[in-house]
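Module 6 notes. Inverse folding takes a fixed backbone as the condition and produces residue identities as the prediction. Think of it as a translation problem where the source language is geometry and the target language is the twenty amino acids. Below is one complete input and output pair. Work through it position by position during the lab.
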């Protein structure tokens, strides 16, 4: 506040604050090409090209409504004031932008105060911190480490632990990285090559058996082959005739059994669903095997 007071001491020869004065000077340069026409009284019409605005000096109003918003006027007001040959001063500008208002605002000062070490002590209870409240979620179990303990990892450090081999009990390596144990070497054989090898081995086995069997069997003549084929055809025909005779005999037996069952005269059993309906409704149900001549009524 003291700096603002010192700043306003050099504005004694200003009626309007310097910032507002510079803005009004800019508007004066813009209104040079405007034409102002009096409408009677303190009303004026400002024209420029095909645009025109009405300015009422007594009511401090302009049809562009910028004078009512900012409080220090617009280019139309500045053109009207220049037409009247008057300087933009107190009557046309809001008192908020006057130098006297700035001086009255900052004329008083704020007194200083001592620090906390100079404050007098009291007998009242000092303010206490708020009660500790358990926050939602699972509580943390991990210990909060010191800055010197952190080594860039979140796991337990193994800096001082020595690794020993599980086979030879030697320090410095484990059984997975042990170099003394002989390990099978991997052959650079692809899956396709393995499949081709297995197929070749199987073909070799089958070909060898055929060769052995071919060497053991003696070649036959054409006449012997024809006789064997004719014998096989005769055997097939005889077996087909036997099968047909057996099927005919079985069909005859089945038909005889069916005729015997039908000639006994026993009625067919009623379906379970029809029995349930008869028991529930106490009425006769006409269907296959029903006794229409002597119906039975159930109570």
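Target side of the pair, the amino acids:
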């Amino acid at each position: 506040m003291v700096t603002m007071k010192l700043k306003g001491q050099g504005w004694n020869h200003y009626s309007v604050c310097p910032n507002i004065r510079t803005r009004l000077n800019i508007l004066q340069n813009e209104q040079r090409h405007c034409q102002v026409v009096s409408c009677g009284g303190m009303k004026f019409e400002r024209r420029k090209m095909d645009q025109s605005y009405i300015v009422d000096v007594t009511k401090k109003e302009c049809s562009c409504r910028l004078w009512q918003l900012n409080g220090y006027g617009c280019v139309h007001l500045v053109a009207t004031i220049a037409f009247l040959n008057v300087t933009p001063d107190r009557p046309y500008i809001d008192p908020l932008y006057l130098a006297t208002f700035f001086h009255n605002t900052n004329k008083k000062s704020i007194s200083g105060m001592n620090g906390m070490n100079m404050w007098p002590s009291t007998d009242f209870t000092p303010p206490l911190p708020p009660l500790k409240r358990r926050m939602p979620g699972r509580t943390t179990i991990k210990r909060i480490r010191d800055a010197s303990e952190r080594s860039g990892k979140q796991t337990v450090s193994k800096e001082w632990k020595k690794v020993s081999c599980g086979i030879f009990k030697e320090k410095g390596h484990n059984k997975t990285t042990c170099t003394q144990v002989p390990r099978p070497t991997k052959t650079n054989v692809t899956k396709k090559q393995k499949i081709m090898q297995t197929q070749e081995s199987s073909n070799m086995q089958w070909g060898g058996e055929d060769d052995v069997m071919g060497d053991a069997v003696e070649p036959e003549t054409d006449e012997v082959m024809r006789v064997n084929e004719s014998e096989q055809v005769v055997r097939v025909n005889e077996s087909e005739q036997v099968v047909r005779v057996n099927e005919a005999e079985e069909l005859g037996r089945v038909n005889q059994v069916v005729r015997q069952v039908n000639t006994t005269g026993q009625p067919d059993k009623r379906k379970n669903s029809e029995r349930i309906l008869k028991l529930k409704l106490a009425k006769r149900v006409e269907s296959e095997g029903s006794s229409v001549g002597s119906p039975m009524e159930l109570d």
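Reference fact for the lab report: The mean pLDDT is 73.
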